[in-house]
Amino acid sequence: MKNTIILLTGATGGIGRALADALAKKGAILVLVGRHLNALHALKNQLVNDEHHQIIEADIGTAEGRDKVNQHARWLGQQGTPIEILINNAGVNGFNYLSMRADDSIEHEIAINLTAPILLCKHALEWLAPTGLIANIGSTFAGIGFPGYANYGATKSGLYRFTEALNRELHGTQQCAIYIAPRATKTALNDARATAMNKQLRNHVDSPEWVANHIIRAIEKRCFATWLGWPEKLFVRLNQLFPSLVGHGIAKQKDIIDFHANTPQGLPVVEESHHDYS
């Protein structure tokens, strides 16, 4: 990673900050993309070799934001320092049953999680280094349809198939696209209800630092698909082969999921008795 020029979206989020910190310590030169300028400056200033890194204030959910990123990336290429790795890390999710979701929140989630990375990848093919790599950050929910995350799972599943197809399109070149799927991670994306549900279901919740280190390993190995965490990676495979078996296991958890999904956001979550549904 030393002196590798990396463009990272969603840089000021939980996983993004951990990735930026770990990559900077490895000697990478970062182009940090986020929506909030003050947060970007604060992140850049705390990184190793902060003077080497750049920031782009842009909302990649908009055409204007993506154009700002693309223009900067093209400019770097013109200077003889092209982007060598694009990490599409920006993402949003909302824990709610589909019937409870507002239409605009569904559209926003699709725009950030699926439309934006697809379009950034398309334009990256114009400015990415000849040996460049695209890493799309997905989710375990791409491989397991889980109640409360129907729309989120759809976006990450779509991103998985898109990455698979793009990587096959790049066959015969020195470029590649890979997909990395974390499981539940301790970040601000999870509200109190989701956090309480994961605790009650005894779902593993990883630290952003752990996830960041495994993302970097997957990038270094150029492994196409990496599912993080055990037993979640096993459940993904089981869901492919025996979906009814996984569905039966989730059905046993439905009462707990219902309780947390039906708790209004912003209200204290009072957990029911803890059950082991393994």
Shape: globular
Largest sheet: 7 strands, parallel
Number of strands: 7
> What is the level 1 CATH name?
Alpha Beta
| Unreliable spans | 267-278
Rounded to an integer, what's the Rg over CA atoms? 19 Å
Task: Assign the CATH superfamily.
Answer: NAD(P)-binding Rossmann-like Domain
Number of helices: 10
Which CATH architecture?
A: 3-Layer(aba) Sandwich
Overall structural domain count: 1
CATH fold topology: Rossmann fold
Distance between the termini: 40 Å
Query: What is the beta-strand fraction?
Result: 5-15%
Write the layout of secondary structure elements.
Layout: E1 5-8, H1 14-25, E2 29-34, H2 37-46, E3 54-57, H3 63-78, E4 85-88, H4 103-127, E5 133-137, H5 150-169, E6 176-181, H6 192-200, H7 208-221, E7 225-227, H8 232-241, H9 243-251, H10 254-261
Parallel strand pairs: 1-2, 1-4, 2-3, 4-5, 5-6, 6-7
Helix pairs in contact: 1-7, 3-4, 4-5, 6-10, 8-9
Organism: Salinivibrio costicola
Family: Belongs to the short-chain dehydrogenases/reductases (SDR) family.
InterPro entries: NAD(P)-bd_dom_sf, SDR_fam
